[in-house]
Amino acid sequence: MKDTDYAFCVAAIRARETDLFAAPFIKKLVEAEGIKQCMMLLKSVGWLESEEVSIREAVRNQQEDLWNFISSSVPDKNVLKYLCVLNDFFNLKVAVKCIFSKEKPDDFYVKPTTLDLKLLSKAAEKNDYNLLTDSFISNTAMSAYELACKTENGQNAETVIDSAAIEMLKKHSEAIGKGVYCDICAFIADTSNIKTAFRCCFTEKSKDFVNLAISSCFKLDRSRIIEATLNGIEALEAYLSGTCYAYGSSLYLNDTVKYDKWCDDRIIEIARGSKYTAFGFDPVCSYYYAKNSEIKTVNMILSAKQAGVPQDVLKERVRIAYA
User: Fold this and answer.
1) DSSP string, 207-247
2) Is the domain defined by 1-76+281-323 classed in CATH 1.10.132.50?
3) What sign for the dihedral angle of Cα 233, 234, 240, 246?
4) In 3D, which of 78, 110, 59, 5 has the Cα closest to residue 295?
5) d(CA 88, CA 276)
6) CB of 119 closer than 8 Å to CB of 131
7) CA gyration radius for the chain?
8) Range in 51-60, 66-75, 152-161, 227-236 with the lowest mean pLDDT
9) What is this structure's pTM?
10) Which DSSP letter does residue 130 get?
11) What is the pLDDT of residue 243?
């Protein structure tokens, strides 16, 4: 499909981008005196239909609206799978973990997702992942389940699935070749591996576990980060200090909350790279991540107001705005 086939879709996105919250409005929400005032502000700009909805319902409505818009606008429906990778594998993790916890996975699934969630629940319940149509996902689920049973450690199952999610991002990135999506995939993969490497260091994981946990890298050298991880914090810090992720890795050592904020902010900065792109998939990807960031930020603010989090703490955690 040609980039110019996205002309109508991109035009619709540009119109919608004008409704994204800019920094001044986010500041108003943060400085609001309580959740009720936040709800009034959100209703005044059309983000909410009613001030009486729950936070969960408000967030879900925005997520559904975003996905309905994207899925109805893109000319090539095949690209939708590129946007759902992390959610798909999160849902897979939920299904496998709920086998052991005896909880209902439906309560924890997230959307949008390309997976048939009813079928996923059935596959997990029957321990028959061949029911899933995607062979990579079904094989990942089987591997995760078998490892969890063998080691009696649910963390191993999570590790298999998290690693597989990165491999899928890499696969999709290679299929597209270049652009905003590829840059975001690279950043997510590498920063996820950095987080995993530090956790493995702190908990002194075995060589076999580290090799399993650290997946494909983009701007990092996988063999070197594995070697550094096995040699301890100082070796890992020394290796990362010579990479383009030096600043982020230093943040992680001092404050993991600030590291997560840095990661989220950097993704939005990458997404801004297609603000003036007229055609193609890049503007779709950028808007998707921008709107998701807005939803995540509003959810954080509302939840913080509800929990009585001090305003100065909230200010430090709010992500940058795309608009």
Assistant:
1) HHHHHHH----SSS-HHHHHHHHHT-HHHHHHHHTTSTTHH
2) yes
3) positive
4) 59
5) 30
6) yes
7) 20
8) 152-161
9) 0.91
10) G
11) 97
Determine the Cα–Cα distance for residues 149 and 163; give it in Å rounded to an integer: 18
The 10s digit of each residue's pLDDT in 72-113 is 999 999 899 999 999 999 999 999 888 888 888 888 999 899
Question: Whole-angstrom distance between the N-terminal and C-terminal Cα of the chain?
Answer: 29
**How far is it, in rounded angstroms, from Cα 85 to Cα 69?**
18
Which two structure tokens, joined as six digits, stand for 159? 């590790």
pLDDT of 295: 96
Rounded Cα gap, residues 65 and 69, in angstroms: 6
DSSP, residue by residue, 70-127? HHHH-S-GGGHHHHSHHHHHHHHHHHHHHHHH---GGGT--SS-SS-HHHHHHHHHHT
Tokens coding 115: 């997976």
Give the span between the Cα atoms of 307 and 35, in whole angstroms: 10
Residue pointed to by tokens 């319902």: 57
Q: Tokens 């989220």 sit at which residue?
A: 264
CB-based contact 106:121 (threshold 8 Å): yes
